[in-house]
Amino acid sequence: MEIIELAEKKKAFAPPEERYRNPHKEAIRVRQIRIIIPKLDSYRKRFKKLLRNISIQLKVLWSAHKPLSKRKELLEARHLYRDASNLLKTDAKLEIITRLVSKALLFDCHYHPLYALKGDIYMRKGNWKNAITSYESAKLMAMQDENLSRNDQKMMYNERLIDAHKERGDWYWKNDHLLEASNDYEHVLLFRLPGMNIPSVQVHF
């Protein structure tokens, strides 16, 4: 109504030759203005709502990436390890499990079960070299675990290393790489001897 009143006042003070020169055209123009302005109001409200939703989503993202306390990082690493272990028992894609393990290692790079789980993933892929490296990393980290006895530290992950060396040795044997096969079988023998612990090879993280 205010727009119509302003239009009427404008015409009232217009020169005589322009006043009501084309009433039909003027009526259409005023009607279009009355239609456009509510649409602009609707767009403005929708835009404000969109900005509000974006703001909420950004707050969620920022809060999700806030630095965690050391205790929460350790807990998060164990939760991710549990999820990855459960997924490995299913037909889940190994790439997804690998990402979970890698993320968990960012929270706690000293948690030796994560390296062992990484070795299990490589074993599933048939990548014995990386599996052995991961198991050796797990064994080295287990040596620093004060919750384990000295004997448990020495025996930890030996069975997995035996399996990895045996499978790789069998592959070498079938493909006539006898020297490499004998080296892997020697590792199996040393791991099986009671009280024996072969020197750990250099591990690259």
UniProtKB/TrEMBL annotation:
Protein name: Uncharacterized protein LOC113465054
Source organism per UniProt: Ceratina calcarata
Annotated gene: LOC113465054
